[in-house]
Design brief:
about 50% helix; binds cytidine-5'-diphosphate
């Protein structure tokens, strides 16, 4: 990866950005599997830092303390596995409270800057599918294909409800819907790296598409580009 966010010439990158619970992670994984590439779940880095702040009593509105915590934790990857403090990070970062805290700390440029090198280092041969909010706009501005994945708020809340229940967490649909609308508003309106589609991004509304169809659409776009 070059310092300006351009992947090394031989490493192709597909970015998938979009609002909470739009299915970015699932789609990124499916596309990466089909192509035999690596994945980057950039939200997991924000979640990991947020959870560490919550458990260690670091205020979520203190960017300097959060940046110090990020440096001390050295959040990064061992292969494709996310690690913090040398330990593998697990499903404990998937709770909604952690996602909401991640969205609060993600407004600070100092926090975002700390997490940038680990994200760019994830671009490795034979290719990377990166999902998040600013993959196509900030982290990999020279990506080969940029996708902006959306879905209606109600269908996203339904998907998130199902996902949490499957992971064994308790979840309430109305609370989830309200939480994701608040998170959308915060992510889209923040000053630094807001959630927005890159002008050249392919916008995909997955409200009426299943996982398989959505993955196929992304793969079609990719194959159209590489011929
Ligand atoms: O799974 P979900 O889409 O709800 O969230 P996530 O992708 O795990 O990200 C959690 C939070 O981290 C988001 O609400 C964003 O505020 C923040 N985030 C970000 O600012 N930039 C990214 N590239 C990824 C996540």
């Amino acid at each position: 990866m070059t310092p300006d966010g351009r992947p090394a010439p031989e490493v192709p990158v597909i970015t998938i950005d979009g609002p909470t619970a739009s299915g970015k992670g699932t789609i990124a994984l499916g596309v990466a599997r089909a192509l035999g590439w690596h994945t980057l779940d950039s939200g997991a880095l924000y979640r990991t830092l947020a959870r560490a702040a919550m458990t260690r009593g670091v205020a979520l509105d203190d960017p300097e303390a959060l940046a110090r915590l990020a440096a001390a934790l050295s959040i990064g990857f061992a292969g494709d596995a996310l690690t913090a403090d040398g330990q593998a990070v697990g499903d404990e970062i998937r709770q909604e409270a952690v996602g909401a805290a991640a969205s609060r700390i993600a407004v600070y440029p100092a926090v975002r800057a700390c997490l940038l090198p680990a994200q760019r280092a994830a671009a490795r041969t034979p290719g990377l599918v990166a999902d998040g909010r600013d993959m196509g706009t900030v982290v990999f501005p020279r990506a080969d294909l940029k996708v902006f994945l959306t879905a209606s708020a109600a269908s996203r809340a339904m998907r998130r409800h199902k996902q949490l229940i499957e992971k064994g967490f308790s979840a309430n649909f109305d609370d989830l819907l309200q939480d994701l609308q608040e998170r959308d508003a915060r992510d889209a309106s923040r000053e630094h790296a807001p959630l927005q589609a890159a002008p050249e991004a392919v916008v995909l509304d997955s409200t009426h598409l299943d996982i398989h169809e959505t993955i196929e659409r992304v793969l079609q776009e990719w194959h159209r580009r590489v011929g």
